From TrEMBL:
Belongs to the NAD(P)-dependent epimerase/dehydratase family. NCBIfam families: galE. Its EC number is 5.1.3.2. It is an enzyme of class 5 (isomerase). Residues 3-249 form the NAD-dependent epimerase/dehydratase domain. This is UDP-glucose 4-epimerase. The keyword NAD applies. Keywords: Carbohydrate metabolism, Isomerase, NAD.
């Protein structure tokens, strides 16, 4: 059994590739390397340098490697930047998904796990998000992910595509030191880069209606996330019925202050975060319920906050050592 991982040279995608190998499933990677890294893909994993916007290339890859199904992670992932770059966001995430579906139809590949986003919910009225929570995305990124889900749903109806979409919030940590988060926008790498550069990390707002006054969000370990992507692929391959959408959530969340405390403890760098004004539109608390995914996709939180930070810190130091 062979599965194509789009965006498999990225932070999350490379962990999915590792999880597939751990499950004795052959991965094939296609990645444009616009944000991914060729060195994140093992030398013995087939790699195609190209974009999912090229349906002919994707179709050739599917045929050439006798692909069983696709785990689709490729796309433009920066919600904040998407506000300034809506056309790029829609091209990569909507047109790209449509072209992927076209290539799958042409080659008869009928199984798809879509890496979606909890950004599809926007700012929900309740503080626990379930799959029944109404979607109301507030950025082109969130909108593009929701449209991607619609495209997949409609293709499923028209062509009997077997599929599921996985929604989640903040992905952190590392499953191996050589695989790390290089995003300029994510909290963990921002804080770790600041600390190792001798700078002080910042908290935006301490007057939220939470136990310690800082925002509470879901933070999920990337290896746990990858495990459930593979579980979804295995279920589809076995013909096991799945829900159309699953939340990969913690159920309780972590506050920004808790993250900062863990950062100081793990790194051994004693610091007191700078306090800035709260950001407009930031809800007090948003976490997702992962009950359905726990039932069907082997989902669970296997890492404590200290373990999440420690794995991210080890990976960052490995990256610095390798670069140096």
């Amino acid at each position: 059994m062979t599965w194509l991982v789009t965006g498999g040279a990225g932070y999350i995608g490379s962990h999915v590739v590792s999880a597939l190998r751990g499950a004795r499933i052959q991965p094939v990677v296609i990645d444009s390397l616009s944000s991914g890294h060729r060195e994140f893909v093992p030398a013995d994993v087939p790699f195609v340098h190209g974009s999912i916007l090229d349906a002919d290339l994707v179709a050739h890859t599917l045929r050439n490697h006798a692909v069983t199904g696709v785990i689709h992670l490729a796309g433009f992932k920066y919600a904040g930047v998407s506000v300034q770059e809506p056309l790029l966001t829609y091209e990569q995430n909507v047109t790209g998904t449509a072209q992927l579906l076209k290539a799958m139809e042409l080659t008869g590949v009928d199984k798809l796990v879509f890496s979606s986003s909890a950004a599809t919910y926007g700012t929900p009225t309740g503080d626990i998000v379930t799959e029944a929570t109404p979607t109301n995305p507030e950025s082109p990124y969130g909108e593009s992910k929701l449209i991607g889900e619609w495209l997949i749903r409609d293709q499923g109806r028209a062509r009997d595509l077997k599929h599921t979409s996985l929604r989640y919030f903040n992905v952190v940590g590392s499953g191996a030191p050589e695989l790390y988060d290089t995003s300029p926008h994510n909290l963990f790498p921002i804080v770790l880069r600041a600390l190792t550069a001798g700078k002080t990390p910042r908290i935006n707002g301490i007057d939220y209606n939470t136990p310690d006054g800082t925002c509470v969000r879901d933070y999920v370990h990337v290896a746990d996330l990858a495990t459930s992507h593979v579980a979804a692929a295995q279920a589809l391959a076995a013909g096991t019925p799945l829900e159309r959408v699953y939340n990969l959530g913690s159920g309780d969340g972590l506050s920004v202050r808790q993250i900062m405390t863990a950062m100081a403890k793990v790194t051994g760098i004693d610091f007191e975060p700078e306090i800035g004004p709260r950001r407009a539109g930031d809800p007090d608390r948003i976490v997702a319920d992962g009950t359905l995914a726990a039932r069907d996709l082997n989902w669970k939180m296997r890492h404590s906050v200290e373990q999440m930070v420690a794995s991210a810190y080890d990976a960052q130091r490995h990256a610095i050592t390798t670069a140096g």
